[in-house]
Amino acid sequence: MASTLTYTTAELMVVAGARALADGQVVVVGLGIPLVAAGLAQRTHAPRLRMLNEIGVVDFWPIELGVGNSDPRMWYHGASFRGHIDVMGMTLQRGLVDVGFLGALEVDVYGNINSTEVPLPGGGFRRFGGSGGACDIASLARETIIIVRHERHKLVERVHHITSPGYLDGPGARERAGLRGRGPSRVITDKAVFDFDPVTCRIRLQSIHPGVTPEELRASTGFPLEIPPDVPTTPPPTAEELEVIHRIDPGGRFTRQ
Amino acid sequence: MAEATERTTNKLVSLAEAAASVPDGAVLALGGFVVARCAAAFARELVRQRRRGLTVTQAIVGFDTDILAAGGAIARLVYGGGSLDHFGLVIAINRAIEQGRIIPEAYSTLTVSLRYLAGALGVPFMPTYSLLGTDVLARLEQVAPENVRRSTCPFTGEPLLLLRALQPDVAVVHVQQADVEGNARIYGPFWDNDEATKAARRVIVLAEEIVSTDYLRQQPELTLIPGFRVDMVVHVPYGAHPTSLYRYYDYDADHLREYVAAAKDPAALERYLDRYVYSVDDHFGYLERVGGVARLSRLRADPLRGY
User: Fold this and answer.
1) How many helices and strands in chain B, by DSSP H and E?
2) Total domain count for chain A?
3) Which of B106, B191, B243 is opposite residue A55, by nearest beta carbon?
């Protein structure tokens, strides 16, 4: 039966993120697709999911989406207001964060992330925001989920600068370095979902979004990509999920583009 | 009650006096986070006084530090990252780093906070599991080898990173309420401010509102910084503008957009500084320049939501 649901790619990404979360988990989220994904999980299968904001806010429940972590809209109805040491130290480093969401300028085949700077073609470099809490989350959360726009210069063989550690240079590297968390579990893009091979630690295709062709996927990926003939299609949102997403992001600022 | 008041030392000074107490080359911990509760008026005053060569330390930089960078006041930045959230990047800081005018000593949110914590506790270092295996650490080993050391736990032998204690010369934070002695309340999350103020050798409190000592002592659990740790208090209404002050006022989105648009072009940024910093006499002149009471009253926070 043909689906009559219409949805955006961002909504598909939100749903992929939400379904990766389980009830009772503690997650670090930032504004954008991760916040909407966690909000969707809370309103469907994971009502006791707790969100943390690195600024020092625990278990907030925003009723408006603001401009970022510094916006009091992202602190609304918080259970506790403290500081970085409380959230990033006594909770994250303490080992109590199940999942952290991370964005990226570049992500590589081992899930390492660059958010610091990229070289310019004519020499020099362009500086960006740096780590913030991202390196701490990538080092210390049990698991991380990476959200990135699917472009050839963003999904690369090797990042120019490891701001946030994935599997570094392969199997055993995290353990040798002394990192605590397991590392990235998924990469969610606007074209596909990836996970990581448990033996080689290399990124691998998990599903392709509906309507994306293998040729398009290869052309927009900066590393050689194996596409199995039987690769599944990313499951689309349900009507209930879409209804909840529209309630969380009524203006569609993060989900209707 | 009267006796308690007699024990109070009045530390009120002007914004210009407070800024003048921070010399060229000082290590300055600034108290803002992105576009929240920034020490914006203090940063503008330092720029107005043409301060140079500062080392600024801050877990996450934002508007206050970007204005300082725009004014050429910063030589070195000890920070974990930062932006102006969805308004944009910290353009003036990033450009100065790209052009080699600011040396970045770049950590992460937790690791800057841990350096402050060690400084506040008076111990030489703090261990962490963060940064291990990254280029963030590799860069730090080049730019600040005196402040990071790979090591192992003396009990278990597991790998650790040791972060050297950071004790800034002065910490400057904007707070919602303080008395004239410096007992200070912060409403909302306080990010790195607890450790930064307690690590610093001197503390300057910028108070949105000056309240009585007796009022603060009715609920001392709300006082984050006790007055005896504070050296100077400045009364600076709307001192965080154009950033937000939880329970008092929202960020000024129009002004932040104006700033970001200007910051993209060095000549336009210089015109912004002329208009809002150099050509006004003081903070109150700035408040008139941005639109005065008519503009500021539109930013007042809703008492239920706090923004």
Assistant:
1) 13, 12
2) 1
3) B191
